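Figure-free illustration: sequence to structure, shown twice.
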Amino acid sequence: MRKIDAHIRSSVLNAILAVLLVLTMLDMVIALLNQLDNIRSTFTFWDAVYYVVASSPTRLYEMIPMITLIGCLAGLGGLATHSELTAIRAAGVSTQRITYSTVKAASIMMVLGLLMGEYIVPDLERMSTSFRTIALGRSVAENNEGKGHWHREGDNYMRFAAIEPNGVLHGLTVYEFDDEKQLTVMTHAKRAIYQRGEWSMENVSITKWDEINTISIKRQTDTFQTELTPDRLKFVAQKPGDMAISTLFRYSQYLEAQGLGDGEFMLAFWKKVLQPVSIFALVLVGISFIFGPLRSVTMGQRLFSGIMVGLVYKIAVDLFGPMGLLFGIGPLLANLIPIILCLIWGGWMLRRAS
């Protein structure tokens, strides 16, 4: 029995690793082609290669459930094609036992996903994004053009065109509002550096409004007070999906303390926490396919089916999340609905196949 378990695990794991390698290489080639239009004197071809390699774990992390599903279909499908699954079941090995061996192989991807989401993806994504933003044109960042990052603190709104990993801000603009939501002061600085517990701004332009006059002031340097520290800047500089699990939880608490909505961040938090469960649900669907409708089809059809199921599942997750926040069912339940549906579907199909 141990040899059969080991054979199933190795077949599935080898298939998962093969799919992982192929999709990673394909993703990097496509990402590099997308960056070729950005090549200029400050952002060379090798800078583009560096950015693509550094940002590839982020894209890979999003594909882990699909990679695991396709790998399980390929691994078990290979056994089915060579009639090994038939022989294994004829030897008295139950479908549940085969499922257990397959899930054990897939558990490596579950652990890998948690480690990447907590320790690898956040730092690499922040570093690569800042590198690309600054390399593509420091003048763009300093002139406050482009998408940038927004942060609210009380009645003040802050915008940063670019944030370097060490906490240096480019294109800083602070909008101050009164109790009647009227803009009273706008402060713009080309750059700001955190020194001795405060932010020191350079090349500062200040515009003040009152009921009669508009006052414009220019200074070489100035400071502004905020609870936003370089550590908290990590939260502002990243999308919720790129943050670490622990960071998402802490930042949600910070937003709640500021009286701001934390739904988007809690949605990303539960999506990352529940990723191992979602992988298990997809693996269960994949196993039910092998013992059911995909028992005697070609490998190409199995891979196509895995890609389609993975894409549909990802669309469902991306759809149910915002809908959950919109209809007030909560981030946890919004993430659980696609998983529960997948578990019910896979369990029902596997029961029929048994």
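We now fold a second protein in the same way, so the two outputs can be compared directly.
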Amino acid sequence: MLMTSAAAGRGARNSTRYQIVLVALLSLNFGIVFFDRNSLNFLMPFVQPELHLTNTQIGNLASALSFTWAIAAFAMGGLSDALGKRKLPLVVATLLFSVCSFITGIAGTFGMLLAARLLMGVAEGGVMPISHALVAEEVDPKRRGLAQGIAQNFGSNLLGSFVAPVLLVLVAKAFGWRHAFYLAGLPGIFSALLLIWLIKEPAMAPKKAREKVVGPRYTMWDALKERNILICVLLAILLVGYLVTCWAFMPLYLDQVLHVSKETNGWLMGTLGISATIGSFAVADLSDRIGRRPVMIAAPFISILLPLGALYFGGTVWLLFPIFFIGWCVNGIFPLFMATVPSETVDARHAATVLGLCMGAGEILGGAGGPTIAGMAADSFGLIAPLWIMVGLAAVSGFIAMGLRETAPSQIRAG
């Protein structure tokens, strides 16, 4: 059943001011999550030679975090729904991933680095399903696409994809890569304090009352019977694979194949963050206006430009900046298939469960499987192989998105 309001049946919402504060703080918090998550990718040109890592091991490190991230997304989404709690799990997760960043900084072997990334995935995986559930419950559904786009994409890309590559590379060059990881762990502590201070625990019915309203237990298999949920899960698998493969191997491709300087490398990867930060407003708002489906079809096809541009690049390095900027527009639809469309498709009481399914499936199959396969391919065929894998993932995603049913309230009313 398509739901045009994620909060159907709820009473009066919190004030507009609180909704803005909530979305801004959730965006900041997830930005810090991605600052920590992406730090190893951007620092890999420093880490790889010191720890003598192979491309397969680099892929395994990216996959390990995605695997435990997925498990946590599955578990925390359902747990949050079952407990009727959002704030407490979010605060605990925020503190834990900061600790994991410090642990990464002291790693001296591949095994220790792997263990640190596994733990970080456990800590970070539940953050976004709970955050999106908060948005679905507290924000006016007319602005749901924009709000969830900002919550997932604005902070994560401004901090995790723009500030992180530029700042961490500078710190690593000046003080060493270990100090860069120590720096990455500090903001999470500050964010946890803000969550405690500013976020309200949503008023949810007691568990027994919720069970009477919801009826039989809603399972992930029930969710997958919904056409839109199945398509969103497939898109998550393919495009998270695209995303994580790019993060893991594009810095190495720029360093070892195109031989750009480490500073330019950081700025190029930072360009992806600028693109996605703008996309957190532009793409999400566009989907509110013209519909989710056309935006989710177009973006994957446009994203083919990024790997092809890098593969066939033959001019001045400055030409890569617009290629990276335009090609990364696909990041703008991540909140749509991970949160907005699922939350508009099922009853709001199942929101965290369904969001955990979409995010968890994307991470465990796309995020964990993609970099491992790409790393093995890179060891066998060179660093061009991961980029060709990105081309294939993007193309298939565009065709799959054609099967979506429209859920945008503006388009449903128009129809």
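Summary for the second example: Residues 1-11 have pLDDT under 50 and may be disordered.
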